Amino acid sequence: MKFIHLSDLHIGKNVNDHSMIGEQKYILNQILEGIKKEKPDAVLISGDVYDKTTPPLEAVLLLDDFLNKLDEIEGLTVILISGNHDSAERLSFGAKRMKKSGLYIKSIFDGDLTPVTLEDEYGKVNFYSVPFIRRADVNNVYNTDIRDYTEAFSFVVEKMELDTSERNVILSHQLVTGASFSESETAVGGIEDIKAEAYAAFDYAALGHIHKPQNIGSRLRYCGTPLKYNVSEVGYQKTYTVVELYGKKSEQELCNINVREVPLIPEHDMVKIEGYFDEIMRARTDENGIVTSDYVYVVLRDDDYVNDAAVKLRKLYPNFMNASYSGKGQTTAFDFDMTIEKAEKQTPFNIFSEFYKKMHMENDPDEVQTEILKAAIKEVWGEDEI
After folding, report:
1. 10, 102, 160, 173, 246 from 123: Cα distances, Å
2. In order of start, what are the domains of the chain with their CATH numbers?
């Protein structure tokens, strides 16, 4: 049994106010070509299909186009669950009708754990779909009072009554203990983790939620996002995961398995450039005056802020995303000792000036900065506070 594991498409996502919809269309078409080449029995999509619970129209149309193209591939089954970014109700629209064409959507946790079962020369493979859930969802569905997240998820697994003589796969959008984060997960905080042992009975766990591709043990896998959505992911190779399940030697053992990654090449990569502003602006350009059309994050080594840096950089880097500073004047650690008692004895002007000096190696604000500060303080607090 061969299937392709996808997750965290985040269709409709904006990165630094840049719409990624064009990039997502490009990479989904690349995935489609890969699916046609691999000829899998199934495609699993493990949640966070959309980036927002109320996705824009262009995101809805892109997902619809992607699913329709999957439907055109003969003999392909598609199984999709919702993640914490998705609206379960919106994602489930038309789900009953779509089953007839081999698309199974499980976006609302209602206690129905009926698997999608496929067969190959080794027998049955049962695909169990558990959309993103919290302890409260489990307690509400089963009228329980479970207080531990792992215990709640394990309770759900027990309700599946797995037949261990057959191969069992789970789609799950959760945080598993030991997962390694990147900085692009924007909604992980406050979500409890589930111990890997809760998935021990499955021949493979197709996980979603964490954007960095990784294995937890040998059979739990986050396939990661198909695109880079944060500067922390610069240097990552994005992939999709191909899984092949073979037969079982006995009911007590899990089946033999082969997992491999297929690289994805984006239309525009995400890169980080570090250097002094003048050096970066002198980079070689093409015939259109552009250095690169990749998504660019710039780290400036200049000690002083560069006026209109973003405007100037965007002329050479049309997909410029953001700039930060690594110069001494921007990163020097300091102990800004400003208690309430001390602040009450100083004017706003003195407080800001002291803070500025700590941030700029004991240099005072220049004449222009001082006049701007005085004008702002006068407008807010009055002449006496300068």
Report:
1. 34, 19, 19, 27, 9
2. 2-263 (3.60.21.10), 270-330 (no CATH), 334-385 (no CATH)
